[in-house]
Design brief:
8 helices; six-stranded mixed beta sheet; globular; binds S-adenosylmethionine; alpha/beta
């Protein structure tokens, strides 16, 4: 049996989703004729597989969740949209006349974001960008559950330090997170328990993405409670400024840099 090819899974998927939506680029077809839906497949290290339509990464503001709108209203100054994907939120900020840079590790996602009109883009992770960038930012936006990019207690301090390097005084992170612990599904509750037994946070997910013959490497993606987030911030210079829990279990955390 052949193993999947390691590559830009998110990019391949979003290019196809963009082609289906716009007719730009080759569309994925079933049997060479019928449009094939583009599905994001996420594997968890306990064997769980989840699939969800990828098209929402291209949604216009009229279809967004209310917390996305509230997050954009909190943006000020120069914004770095971290893990901007297909430019869903960055393009809208740009439309509103704000200075916004979209950063993503996925070449394909940035290609689609640029095709949708996003002018200022960076293909890198925050560490690489912080080591070479001269630009500084007032707002770091982590939407679409991208608080997950903190990964977990071991790697969060370095991620937050990279953002601090890129920060202007008084800069803020606006991040969308999800409290995982309201679930009654034993599949998830057992996973949280087993994670804790291994010394990990309950919602420190070990995932990989799949699309067609491709896979990403396995990576950690953090789904944590507000209390866990507060603990992760200790000693980093970032402090919680406010938490918006109107759309539970989702929340928007605003963190401010105190040097
Ligand atoms: C869940 S999607 C969210 C996309 C977008 N923020 C939105 O709300 O539509 C996660 C995005 O983060 C990007 N990503 C994953 N790891 C990253 C990293 N270490 N640094 C920057 N971007 C990353 C992925 O390529 C993907 O575009």
């Amino acid at each position: 049996m052949e193993e999947p090819i390691i590559g830009d899974v998110f990019g391949e998927m979003i290019r196809d989703a963009y082609a289906v939506r716009t007719g730009i680029g080759p569309r994925p077809l079933a049997g060479g004729r019928l449009p094939r839906p583009v599905v994001e497949v996420i594997e968890r290290d306990d064997g769980l597989i989840n699939g969800a339509p990828a098209d929402h990464y291209l949604d216009e503001p009229s279809l967004w969740q209310p917390h996305d709108h509230r997050a954009l209203r909190l943006c000020r100054g120069a914004v770095l949209d971290v893990g901007c994907g297909a430019g869903r939120t960055a393009v809208e900020l740009q439309r509103r006349g704000m200075a916004v840079t979209g950063l993503d590790t996925s070449v394909g996602a940035i290609e689609v974001a640029r095709a949708r009109g996003l002018r200022d883009t960076v293909i890198a992770d925050v560490h690489t960008y912080a080591s070479r960038a001269t630009a500084r930012y007032d707002t770091f936006l982590l939407l679409g559950n991208n608080l997950g990019l903190l990964e977990g207690p071991e790697r969060a301090p370095a991620f937050l330090a990279a953002l601090a390097e890129l920060a202007r005084p008084g800069a803020r992170i606006i991040a969308h997170g999800t409290d995982p612990y309201g679930t009654t599904d034993p599949l998830h509750a057992d996973y949280h328990r087993r994670n804790r037994e291994r010394g990990r946070l309950g919602g420190q997910l070990r995932l990989r993405l799949r699309y067609r013959r491709m896979a990403t490497e396995w990576f950690d993606y953090l789904v944590c409670s507000v209390d866990e987030l507060k603990q992760l911030l200790e000693g980093t210079g970032w402090r919680i400024k406010s938490i918006d829990e109107q759309d539970r279990p989702y929340y928007l955390a605003v963190m401010e840099l105190h040097s």
